[in-house]
Amino acid sequence: DGGITQSPKYLFRKEGQNVTLSCEQNLNHDAMYWYRQDPGQGLRLIYYSQIVNDFQKGDIAEGYSVSREKKESFPLTVTSAQKNPTAFYLCASSIWGTGVNQPQHFGDGTRLSIL
Amino acid sequence: GENVEQHPSTLSVQEGDSAVIKCTYSDSASNYFPWYKQELGKRPQLIIDIRSNVGEKKDQRIAVTLNKTAKHFSLHITETQPEDSAVYFCAAEKNSGGYQKVTFGTGTKLQVIP
After folding, report:
1. Buried b / exposed e across A55-74, counting CB within 10 Å, b at 16+?
2. Is B26 an 8 Å CB contact of chain A?
3. In whole angstroms, how far apart are CA A76 and each of A3, A64, A69, A82, B87?
4. Pairing label, strands A110-114, A10-13
5. How far is the alpha carbon of B82 from chain A, nearest alpha carbon, in Å?
6. What are the tens digits of pLDDT across the range B47-72?
7. Which candidate in A29, A37, A41, A43 is best for mutational testing of the B interface (most B CBs within 10 A)?
């Protein structure tokens, strides 16, 4: 969907460095998500947020941090505490608050590698 | 927490044949089951979904069935075409403490041989 923009497309991290992945959406969705995708492991949830200034840890939150200061933006920081950050990172958003679950809309992803 | 198992991990079929991908889930509170298709180098996109109050849903060549008692759901693709080649993910979702919690399966790589 053109409504979710992730940047950059490729990112390289040096040892001990924090890096931030950007995710912006113009779909007016309340809920936003970050996933990590590794070969053979599918999508694993890192963090999610369903309203501004609130977010919850997913299944693999260690070594990552997020913020949700604006409805449109949900940046993910990969900290130096994440020892194996090489992966494909996907951001997603969905409608929330209707009382029924809604499908997720994904960005094009950011591929992070270690230098 | 929820655990979603997906099988098979790879599937090769001849063009025109049917393909079936199966998922099982562990949490009976899950009530929404979407399927996503991810072509090589592209974003996952929703292809079909089913809610827990429905047993089957069909959209042209794609259908999904849900057995709540057995906690499993399946994706059926008929008359497969080369453009169906992709990785398919199932997911199970529930509302937990006001949040929509999503768990994905590990994916099935489908190859349709012309």
Report:
1. beebebbeebbbebeeebeb
2. no
3. 18, 7, 12, 12, 25
4. parallel
5. 22
6. 999 999 889 999 999 999 999 999 99
7. A43
A41: chain B residues, CB-CB within 8 Å: 106
pLDDT, residue A2, reads 56
In angstroms, rounded to a whole number, what is the distance separating the alpha carbons of residues B1 and A30? 24
Scan for tokens 């969705």, then name that residue: A29
Region A26-53 average pLDDT: 91
Closest CA to A90 of B20, B10, B36: B36
Place of tokens 């759901």: B73
Does the N-terminal peptide bond of residue A8 adopt cis geometry, omega within 30 degrees of 0?
Answer: yes
Instruction: Determine the residue of chain A that is closest to B31 in CA distance.
Output: A101
Joined together, the tokens standing for residue B55 give: 């047993």
